[in-house]
Design goal:
Elements: E1 2-4, E2 8-10, E3 27-31, H1 37-49, E4 54-55, H2 66-75, E5 77-84, H3 86-90, H4 92-103, E6 108-112, H5 126-131, E7 138-139, H6 148-163
Parallel strand pairs: 3-4, 3-5, 5-6, 6-7
Antiparallel strand pairs: 1-2
Pfam family, one: TIR_2
GO biological process, one term: signal transduction
Protein name: TIR domain-containing protein
Length: 165
Amino acid sequence: MAYNQQNSYSEGDDDGADNERGDQLEHIMLSYQWDNQKLVEKVYNYLTQHSIPVWMDKNGGMQDNVFLSMSQGVQRCFALVCFLTPAYQNSANCKKELTYALDTDTPVIPCIIGSKEEGIKWKPSDWLGMSISNLLYIDFSQVDDKNFESKCQELIQRLVPYLSS
C-alpha cells in the first residue's frame, strides 16, 4: 500500500509483508486523552477522508480487553500519533500506549495541544518530556478553523514516509 500525491492511500505492489514487530501494518494509531476527543475525532475524519487508515479507540479500535486492544493497535500501526496535554501526561493508559510504541520501535509523531488554561504555554515534562525529547512535534496548540487543514496536511506530510514503505 502507498500514499500517492493525489492524497489517497491505495493498494500498490505491497506484498503485505509483516513489520519487524511481527504483525502486519494496517493503520495509523491516534493516542490521546479523552478530554481532547473532539479535536482528535476531527483529525481522524480528515485523515480517513484522505484515504488514510486510522485506528481510534472510539471508532471501533477498542474491544472488550482494553490492554489487548491498545497493544494490537500499536503493533499494527505504521506510526503512532499522540496528542499531548497535561491530562495525557497524567494518564496511566496514555503512558502505557506511548511507552509500548517506543519500546517496539514504532515511529511516533507527537502533536502538542497543550493546556486548556488561557495564557499558559505547557511543555511536556517528567516521563513524557523525556520520551519525546528527540522527536519533532507538530504544534496543535493554536489550532482553529482557519489553520486546521494546514495542520492536518503537515501531519500527513510527516506520515507519508511511513505510509509509502
